[in-house]
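Quick one, tokens below. Sequence please?
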């Protein structure tokens, strides 16, 4: 339907029928300016008496419910409606509106632009009252027409309070304009009753019947209705556009944000499993040293439901995008159901905020542009976005992928813009989703903005997530297959890797394709997954792209077909080139980047003319790869880790490997920090070569290490990092956490280095805590043994021993956690608060019900 399409619902009165509207409908049909109008006559049972004892005349409530079903079904396709009623039809209309509000469906009324009442007996009708009472005493419709009817009066009060004078759209209110007309010569419903207390009231020519039956296009009833129809078609009532926005946004958000192999993407709701998040609060030790935050675990969905500005931190593929998408669809559902929500979510990639000045108008323009790119056909105004969508309900702009902005300065500029727009009176709140960033970067948002770390799946959650995937993939026995995959993940020692939602998704699909064995590292998982995607593309029965190439390009000669097939066979390489260019900051479109690559240049006959034919082919090849999707008019990778994987694969190709090692895994001259322990190795006075990990590129560099695992010199390089600096050890511990393939000798060396650093009292306290955290992330058995011994000693204060060490062991499901907590609960050198926490945590791990803590040993 067109943007101005208006459904005009016609509701007749007592002892009448839809045919009474024929004169008006004919005039509208003949009016060339009313082509956007569709009349929808609503009929219902009415009359004086029923002779058949099996039949009854319906009450106003029954007819109002029938009208509700009519509007929900016959008028479902209209985003703009106008209700025009005559006589008793006006009372039914008002009863329908009030019953909708009683059901909490105020938001569903927002598409009604206007209600017109023609000769409606708002205060009842006196005509023939005594006779009606005696002859029609059992007619429920006649009873409602009597003056001073209590139910009619209650309905009218609700209409005035919650519709005509409503401030905004809620579950129980919805502002709708009313136009009320009395007939100039109407003796059945006098002017006082027809106009009642409605503010916009007037009179039209005609008696009780002819007021609704204009006989020409110049009749004032027609000209008045025509004016109101035009105003209703162009109006923008509160709530209507919000409903349209939420429908479009929720539909886009319900898609799975990961690549898939099955050919049919399951809805996100079918496989999404809610996650927990850990809140970090700044704290210091009694001696004034920085110490661990007390970790409070909360539901991630509940955090977003609070509607406050916050930061969501998560690992690559850790579920950040799925959380934001799920929150958007859940909020839309709650709003449609008339339930209270604290903020209206808007999902926006961080890339859309680059270069945006800190003004509400600029942000509103960006939000509007995003929806237009997404294909929203009904244009929303800037004013819709630069003011609260509902009274006292702000926008929640959910900024996804801040970490995808590689340049630190660019990230800082975006965060400064968000901080400037987060003032208390602003119509905006912000949720920033990102991989972990340096604390000082996120501090730009303000110290009061909470940060939450998304927790990976617990073992039970992981099994449930697998089970949901196998149900979505339509396995004949999904629960049994879920048990098989869970066991296979344990056997392959992939449990830690599989606990992130993206890895769960990929392993489930790989297992569904071939259950004989699983990959052994993160890079191998991506290798096998991408290989199957490429294989699927070349399966004629599924995609048939080769035959389509020939059909589309054969008119341009065999050279065009041959070059297209060559480009298709080179697609993994081309995608790698594209990923590398984008990772290094090339902001050109994907098609502009590819068309200059030797393997994707257009053939001669298409290079000067009809270049769009070739670009269409390349775009279709990218889309069918299953790795990229259109965001507006631009191709983007479905997930950032696939961009990193392909960029890494391109970086280690034979001719580029040496350059990659020297630039990506670079060595820089630096002096050892003074706090570095002498037991690790003395530094020459002039400085020595030490590796400084590029900030926040762990995932990308991990792919390089994994894919170049067997290249000469890689192990030697890893051992140098493991034996040298805290930075290098933290980096390797991070790679273990991500699932990068690493030699055992490297992880053992890292564990020993971190253990020595954490025990060295000459080392700065906060760096020693960093070493403890890295041991937790390393997670190896040696690291767990070292942590257990550190927790028993007195090198650290009670807080660090409890929250960082014992808490870290519990986080990685280490059996050492129970033994350490047992010891800490009995340790009389700790204060009672710490010992009580150890006792409660111990009960939680051993699934015991805590009793009164006495402090006795």
């Amino acid at each position: 339907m067109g943007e101005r399409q208006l459904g005009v619902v016609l509701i007749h009165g007592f002892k009448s029928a839809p045919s009474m509207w024929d004169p008006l409908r004919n005039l509208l049909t003949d009016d060339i300016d009313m082509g956007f109008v569709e009349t929808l006559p609503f009929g219902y049972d009415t009359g004086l008496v029923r002779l058949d004892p099996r039949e009854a005349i319906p009450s106003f409530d029954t007819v109002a419910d029938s009208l509700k079903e009519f509007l929900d079904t016959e008028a479902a396709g209209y985003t703009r409606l106008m209700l025009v009623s005559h006589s008793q039809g006006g009372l039914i209309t008002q009863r329908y509106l009030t019953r909708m509000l009683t059901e909490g469906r105020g938001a569903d009324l927002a598409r009604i632009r206007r209600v017109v009442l023609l000769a409606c007996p708002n205060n009842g009708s006196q005509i023939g009252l005594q006779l009606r009472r005696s002859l029609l005493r059992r007619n429920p419709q006649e009873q409602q027409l009597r003056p001073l009817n209590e139910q009619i009066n209650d309905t009218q009060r609700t209409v005035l309070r919650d519709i005509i004078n409503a401030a905004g759209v809620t579950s129980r209110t919805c502002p709708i304009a009313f136009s009320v007309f009395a007939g100039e010569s109407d003796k059945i419903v006098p002017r006082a009753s027809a106009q009642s207390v409605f503010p916009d009231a007037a009179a039209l020519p005609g008696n009780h019947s002819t007021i609704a039956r204009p006989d020409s296009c110049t009749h004032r009833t027609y000209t008045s209705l025509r004016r109101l129809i035009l105003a209703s078609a162009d109006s923008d009532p509160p709530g209507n556009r919000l409903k349209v926005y939420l429908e479009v946004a929720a539909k886009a958000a319900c898609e799975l944000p990961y690549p898939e192999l099955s050919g049919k993407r399951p809805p996100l709701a079918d496989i999404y499993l809610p996650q927990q998040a850990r809140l970090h609060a700044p704290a210091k030790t009694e001696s004034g040293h920085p110490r661990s935050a007390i970790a409070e675990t909360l539901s991630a969905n509940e955090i977003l439901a609070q509607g406050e500005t916050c930061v969501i931190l998560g690992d690559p593929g850790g579920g950040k995008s799925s959380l934001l998408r799920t929150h958007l669809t859940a909020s839309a559902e709650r709003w449609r159901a008339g339930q209270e929500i604290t903020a209206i979510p808007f999902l926006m990639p961080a890339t859309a905020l680059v270069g945006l000045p800190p003004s509400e108008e600029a942000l509103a323009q960006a939000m509007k542009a995003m929806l237009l790119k997404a294909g929203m056909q009904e244009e929303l105004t800037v004013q819709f976005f630069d003011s609260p969508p509902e009274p006292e309900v702000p926008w929640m702009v959910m900024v996804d992928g801040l970490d995808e902005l590689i340049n630190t300065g660019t990230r800082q500029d975006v965060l400064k813009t968000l901080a400037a727009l987060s003032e208390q009176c602003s119509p905006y709140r912000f949720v920033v989703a990102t991989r972990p960033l340096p604390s000082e970067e996120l501090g730009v948002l303000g110290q009061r903005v909470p940060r939450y770390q998304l927790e990976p799946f617990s073992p039970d959650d992981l099994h449930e997530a697998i089970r949901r995937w196998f149900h979505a993939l339509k396995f004949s026995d999904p629960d049994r297959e879920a048990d098989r995959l869970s066991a296979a993940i344990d056997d392959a020692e992939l449990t830690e890797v599989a606990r992130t939602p993206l890895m769960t998704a990929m392993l489930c699909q790989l297992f569904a394709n071939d259950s004989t064995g699983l990959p052994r590292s993160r890079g191998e998982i991506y290798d096998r997954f991408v290989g199957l995607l490429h294989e699927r593309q070349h399966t004629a029965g599924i995609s048939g792209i080769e035959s389509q190439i020939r059909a589309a390009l054969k008119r341009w000669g065999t050279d065009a077909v041959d070059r297209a097939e060559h480009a298709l066979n080179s697609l993994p390489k081309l995608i790698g080139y594209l990923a590398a260019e984008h990772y290094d900051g090339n902001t050109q479109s994907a098609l502009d980047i590819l068309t200059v690559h030797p393997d994707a240049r257009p053939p001669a006959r298409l290079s000067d003319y009809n270049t769009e034919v070739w670009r269409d082919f390349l775009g279709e090849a990218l889309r069918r790869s299953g790795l990229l999707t259109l965001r507006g008019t631009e191709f983007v990778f479905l997930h950032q880790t696939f961009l990193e994987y392909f960029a890494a694969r391109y970086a280690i190709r034979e001719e580029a490997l040496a350059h990659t090692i020297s630039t990506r895994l670079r060595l820089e001259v630096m002096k050892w920090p003074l706090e570095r322990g002498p037991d690790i190795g003395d530094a020459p006075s002039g400085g020595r070569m030490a590796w400084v990990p590029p900030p926040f590129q762990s995932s990308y560099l991990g792919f390089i290490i994994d894919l170049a695992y067997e290249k000469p010199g890689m192990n030697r390089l890893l051992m140098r990092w493991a034996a040298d600096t805290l930075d290098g050890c933290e980096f390797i511990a991070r790679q273990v956490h991500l699932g990068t393939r690493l030699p055992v000798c490297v992880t053992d060396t890292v564990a020993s280095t971190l253990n020595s650093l954490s025990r060295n009292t000459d080392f700065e306290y906060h760096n020693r805590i960093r070493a403890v955290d890295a041991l937790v992330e390393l997670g190896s058995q040696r690291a767990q043994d070292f942590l257990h011994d550190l927790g028993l000693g007195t090198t650290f204060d009670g807080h660090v021993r409890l929250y960082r060490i014992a808490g870290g062991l519990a986080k990685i499901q280490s059996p050492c956690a129970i033994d350490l907590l047992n010891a800490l609960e009995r340790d009389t050198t700790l204060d009672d608060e710490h010992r009580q926490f150890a006792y409660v945590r111990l009960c939680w791990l051993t699934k015991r019900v805590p009793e009164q803590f006495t402090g006795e040993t």
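The two ends are 76 Å apart (CA to CA). Confidence is low (pLDDT under 50) at residues 125-136, 144-148, 281-294, 667-688.
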